[in-house]
Amino acid sequence: MFRPTYFPMLGFVLLLIFTYLSMLPWQLKLSLLAMVYMMTIFLPAIGVYTYRRINHLTPQELQLHHNRMVPYMLHIICYCILLYVMNDIHAPVFISGIIVISLLVQCICTVITLWWKISIHSAGMGAIIGALVAYSIIFQFNPVWWLCAAILVSGLVNSSRMLLRQHTLGQVMGGAFVGFLCGLTALFL
Q: Any idea where the domains of the chain sit in the sequence?
């Protein structure tokens, strides 16, 4: 449930519920969510599945350094297309910001992964916390309870990555730091 690919969808749902966008017609909200789902979850998953089948890779083999680059690139391409479409339909900047944050996190983590394995899961959680702080500044609301929930879930996700022996503490902390910086700064750029 807390996979990084689901975070943009969660962000869109929350913005469509808790901002002035809640006044939009439900058909428009559903079509926007369907587009985000297709470009951030469905198409990248189909692409990674096809890549695995063509190359006869097991999930464990996909964790190898040289096998991770193609799935990362598939995600980045889909997010770039979605960002282009969002700009084309003149979506508000704070909505497109979710895609910008996700794209920035993916690009930075992909580059870092060339030399050092970094936790994309913790980068996603860090981005949520950073974006939450940025959105609280933009919309002038008190994010304490939301931050508490996000930090708790982040701790659970990061702990599970270490308990599953997928990452070390340094990789998790590095990912959280990169994600937080991206989430905090991307909306203001």
A: 4-186
